[in-house]
């Protein structure tokens, strides 16, 4: 789909910078959106995608830079300002009211009135009209809850058309849709494009992005990498522009990729066909003693979903699990812990640290939870364990009585690692343990992982930084679009090889 | 759903389809029907047992004795629909009632006293709304504060009851309009008018629909550009206004103001609203349902009188019924969230 | 010095001391203590005695609030407790025998423990919102209490039972020792075992606690059961004081007093870290406040107005809105005074 570069852009963002305490979320980013085009915005976690969209929808105010809508400079203080400017958003969770009818959701806030009171017949008629314009025929009196997410999304889109939106932002619209529903959605998107609406499409699904987009803009670490025509952008270029390379010089890089693993006995953990409808396609994974299995893939590919099912943090509806060859039921974290499995979540803040408790209490929490409330871990024992791990992992400041929320991200991560290691697990799952932490802490954690696995600890390691995964893991499980697409032996592998594998459906040699 | 292209549909699938559509269109009415069913069953059993239960006098009394509760329930419906709760309504009713009685006994004309009492009810509601919205206080704590404030103020006005001598107020209860053997007083009419107003506002104004939207998903409502904060505060103000109107109704009914009025009335009100099919989580429920809930409450009270049983059974039964409804609501919610 | 000021209970202690001093200055009789037959009397002593029921209830409320919950049924549970105990005593052929008293008290406590466990079941297992779950018992509890006493206000004449609230031990009111014992037991259980830390973890971050393997269900259940048990004992003290089971008056509105005591003591209503010491200070502060208001000639039914005002002030001070404005003001003053840049958290 060739793009006419002479059409005046509907949205022009120039030099957008947004700063939060301690981090520059967007650094002088330019972005152009034209009417009648489908433009995809891509980038990994922390790239600045959602920040850019929030700037465009009035959720965040910009620190510097300009936003121009249809030639007019605008400043958005609230979401209503953005909506008034003709920018509508359909979010991943389809932010509609499931307790109301379809018609009402479409017209909410814009109901047809007669003499001050709502004229329901006319309102429903209007709603049906807007829905039909998108090719959707249904009884507008039915409750929104009784329709699938796919239909709810189309209803949300038609709501955007009620207000005559010039720009439609679709945030991860296809995460919960099946193939047929995606087709239907794309049909609607193409229709809208013909009508001149500008569509901003945010998604992790590479195939879909290529299928529907005219242009692609890539962000990384808050900066603009480039804006490309979808037709002429090779997949490898796209992926490497998103992931990039670790160019920093890490002293004493830990490496365990070359280590030999004894796979003759039963694996410590085996998952067969583990999956959950709408979340993860059934996947297999096994891991042996002392092995590090890395999981690589883009954000949204299902890595976290897989390990959460393994740990019982979420309940699988498909597949089975074996520990040391024996069939085991793992449906809650307690089951996993009883089988000496540990899990460090990627969301430190919401699922990891207990902020108001001290460093010592956070570290000892895992052990204490196992022992129950009656058998308190004695002060002397706590002190010894805490001291040991503060030293071993280099937690700074080395003060066990400081509330953990006052520590930097890297040190918080170390505390969490200490919590789990203190329980002496056989298998530890680390989800993005080095994300968002300083270089020194990164190196410390990587070193620890290599060291412990050499002593017999099994590790499942998720990281967006492929270099890290290649260095530490012996085997790499590759995920894409909520599916496991294959496995690689990491010894001798390069970052490009893995990127290639992710991009091209995996025809690589699998040992 | 969208274009279902199947071969000639069988009669069974047509019926099932129609049933599904019906269920989808009217899902939130189902709990209300359940309440109506309970009411009908209670009437039926009582009639069969006592023989003369369903007579015009009793039914008329059912409305008039519980008129104050009906008014409170309308206001409470607004608040619970937004996902909040208002524990101050009984105390506001007492405060506004005794304030009115005190004012008229000092010679203030009722035409001034009545609007003043309603305004003070609104003021308490406004205070609660502001505490919830601008000071991040949990709704029930904020409304507990309102409850304490109103109750204390009631006693500040007077430690003992004040008899009302004002003709215009007493007339509200003494005038009777007869329809055959049924009768109704202006207080009953006021209560019914409040119900009608509640229905009109909730079903036919944008403000009312915003209330439902907030209860359904507050975040979505905000993202949809609806005036969420203003609406939520207004819901409490409406509850406070209803507290004031209920104060008028009860004062007229009793012929006096009494600072201890409405002790525990908030719990009765919440029970009536929940039994009437309004979900505590918000977003689903109808004023008409709350009205049925009030009648269920009133019937239980009447039945207890008829049976000559202890008055304390009333609260126990109501509490038990409330529990059953809450548990059932919870089970339905967990089931449907597990399905998605 | 900074560490003392930053300590959780610093401001609550300051507030209490200020209040006590104010009273001592305005009415010197406040601090006068007389000795009669080896027993101490005086306003302060009465304060110690009368604060016992609230102390017990507030202790239970603290733990429940720490789990992000609330217990509105405590007043009704007090009524039930009094009803059970007094009914047993009244119907016993030996109402003065210590054995009868013991049975009455134990029975009442068992009933209220079950009531608390019932609340815990609704919240922890069925997942019902704590406000609603405890509201049910708040509604039905007094009715149940009235049923137990057959609609009457049962009165008894039993010296050993009266001892609970009116008796003296080592010169101090026995009820005061009950308070102390409760505080000591709760502190021991919370801090000697891991229960305190695990409760805080559940309140601060329920999801992280779940992933860490904490048995949240049991902890929450236990919190409500404890609240019920403590309210039960408070009910015994109350009924011992008036030697009657008045199901309508027992524990009337004690819920808000307890919540207020917890909040004044520095425990957040959002759950998480809790302070028993803070609650103790809070209880004494409320009792002193009530005593002050009554002394000022305000009729006691009007005191809730002042309680409401205090809550509004406390909540407003604690609120992010005010904190935000205050923090900005402090920061701008600090920036004006020095050039050090603060590291943002």
What is the overall pLDDT average of chain A? 86
Q: Note poorly predicted spans of chain A.
A: 246-251, 506-511
- The count of β-strands of chain A is 22
What's the overall average pLDDT of chain C, rounded?
85
Helix percentage range of chain C: over 70%
Provide the gyration radius of chain C in Å.
Answer: 22 Å
Largest interface: B-C, 42 and 47 residues
How many structural domains of chain A?
3
Oligomer: heterotrimer
CATH topology of the largest domain in chain C: ABC transporter involved in vitamin B12 uptake, BtuC
What does this structure look like?
The complex is a heterotrimer of chains A (511), B (340) and C (345). Chain A has 511 residues and is an alpha/beta fold. Helices cover 34% and strands 25% of the residues of chain A. Chain A has 17 helices and 22 strands. Chain B has one domain: ABC transporter involved in vitamin B12 uptake, BtuC. Chain B has a two-stranded antiparallel ribbon with strand order 1-4. The longest helix of chain B has 28 residues, at 312-339. Chain C is mainly alpha-helical and 345 residues long. Chain C has two domains: 44-297, ABC transporter involved in vitamin B12 uptake, BtuC; 302-336, no CATH class. Chain C is built from 16 helices and six strands. In chain C, the strands form three sheets. A two-stranded antiparallel sheet of chain C has the order 1-2. In chain C, strand 1 (33-36) and strand 2 (39-42) form a beta hairpin. In chain C, helix 4 (52-66) packs parallel to helix 9 (174-192) and helix 6 runs antiparallel to helix 12. Chain C is globular, with a radius of gyration of 22 Å. The model of chain C is unreliable at 338-345 (pLDDT under 50). The B-C interface holds B 85, 131, 134-138, 140-141, 144-146, 148-149, 151-153, 155-156, 159, 259, 264, 267, 270-271, 280, 310-316, 318-320, 322-323, 326-327, 330, 334 and C 70, 122, 126-129, 131-133, 135-140, 142-147, 150-151, 247, 253, 255-256, 259, 269, 299, 301-309, 311-312, 315-316, 319-322.
